[in-house]
Write a structure and sequence with these properties.
Length: 428
């Protein structure tokens, strides 16, 4: 799958055993990618787990990045097969989507690597993965468009919906450690049911009105106080470093970015980074601190300015989407939630839980006033986070940042099923 590994004849090794070991090798690499990021894949560690000599593992891959590439290509091939399978089912389009998502996320299915950090790869294999991702998005878009043609799905930009679905699937594969979610068969089945329910039905109540926002992330950031603390000029330079590093980490993963990459992107020497941060771990910690400050700010603005719980939820989703699409994004929640940071990981998870509790409270109040629909899953807030995390990776659009964020918020509110009198605006 993907590029053929270098072939080095191994005396006395039966072909069947090689095939089995390659499957196990890719499963281990995939799990490592989803839990700790692609940069954490180390061939020596994996060969020890498989009981292979360090020289033997090079039969299967040239180096760690080649192994990551193979895992990504395997994920693309699994997705392509599942889209083709779902498209051929004799059932309504919404149930085809449910069947596809179930196959991609079921606990006992083949291991699928989250495609969050494709930029981690060198240019040529990266282009191959992106082409495979694009083809899958186009095939999924055709499935969605077919359902729109029969009236089974509402009219909206099928290509953007396909990107959103793929982004949310990747989020589902990497988010569980952050959210402290169980991952047994029953828990995974409940998550899949909730995922499909939110995607198809949205969160808006039956008689809810449409929501709009004139807020922009850039203006919100400029007006915020948490970036203005410290000596004059100090926070401005620090935040410039943090914003640049966060953008690179979001594109390549935590392990896929060197301090040299950050300094190059800044157009400055690496010394400027060491002037403000002790090392890379300190930089990542500070990026998370900045990120949670932004996420808290967005949550606070949404709650204060939304006139109904539905509008509050829309503002939070919309502003988070704008933030991830901006040139100065907050650090997205990455695989390996703060494992390098000792006790700090507990603080980071606590802040994630607090944001989740605030989201759940918004939805609960909305159930009481009718702006949020009845029967919405308790985990809806966790699932909706997948609508904006990963946007900078998966969504390619001619729409501007604000328009694309409006689209994301619209799908979150109204879902993909047609609604009588739906006031959603996610048109083609």
């Amino acid at each position: 799958m993907g590029q053929e590994p270098q072939k080095r004849a191994k005396r006395g090794r039966p072909p069947g055993r090689r095939s089995h070991q390659r499957v196990v090798l890719l499963d281990i690499a995939t799990k490592q990618i989803n839990t700790e990021g692609p940069g954490s894949v180390v061939l020596a560690d994996i060969s020890n787990r498989l009981g292979l000599s360090r020289s033997s593992i090079y039969y299967y891959c040239r180096d760690a990045k080649d192994l990551v590439f193979q895992a990504y290509m395997q994920a693309c091939e699994i997705l392509a097969d599942n889209i083709s399978w779902a498209a051929g089912l004799d059932m309504p389009a919404d149930q085809k989507l449910v069947s596809l998502i179930t196959r991609m996320l079921e606990r006992d299915r083949a291991k699928v690597a989250a495609l969050n950090d494709v930029s981690f790869l060198p240019q040529t294999p990266q282009a191959q993965v992106r082409l495979a991702v694009q083809k899958n998005a186009e095939a999924l878009g055709m499935l969605i468009k077919s359902g729109q043609g029969t009236g089974e799905l509402r009219a909206c930009n099928e290509g953007l919906v396909a990107d959103l679905v793929l982004s949310s699937i990747s989020w589902a594969l990497v988010s569980r450690p952050w959210l402290d979610q169980a991952d047994d068969l029953n828990a995974r089945a409940r998550y899949i049911d909730a995922f499909c329910d939110v995607l198809l039905r949205g969160i808006a109540g039956e008689h809810a009105a449409g929501c709009h926002s004139g807020l922009t992330f850039e203006r919100l950031l400029e007006a915020s106080d948490f970036l203005k603390k410290g000596a004059p000029g100090t926070m401005e330079k620090t935040d410039q470093i943090l914003a640049t590093a966060s953008r690179l980490f979001n594109q390549r993963g935590l392990e896929g970015v060197r301090l040299d990459d950050v300094s190059d992107a800044l157009g400055a020497s690496k010394g400027i980074i060491y002037h403000h941060f002790r090392d890379k771990a300190d930089l990542i910690e500070s990026c998370y601190e900045r990120a949670f400050g932004i996420y808290d700010l967005i949550m606070d603005i949404g709650i204060r300015q939304g006139s109904t719980p539905l509008e509050q939820a829309f503002l939070v989703i919309n502003l988070n989407a704008q933030a991830q699409l901006s040139s100065a994004p907050p650090l997205a929640l990455q695989p390996g939630p703060g494992m390098k940071f000792g006790e700090r990981r507990h603080e980071f998870r606590r802040r994630v839980r607090r944001l989740g509790e605030q989201s759940a409270n918004i939805l609960q109040v909305g159930l009481e006033d009718g702006s949020i629909r009845a029967g919405i899953p308790e985990t809806a807030g966790d699932i909706l986070a997948g609508y904006f995390f990963g946007l900078n990776q998966m969504v390619v659009s001619k729409l501007g940042q604000k328009e694309l964020a409006d689209f994301v918020g619209d799908v979150a509110l109204w879902g993909l099923l047609p609604r009588p009198g739906c006031s959603g605006r996610a048109r083609r």
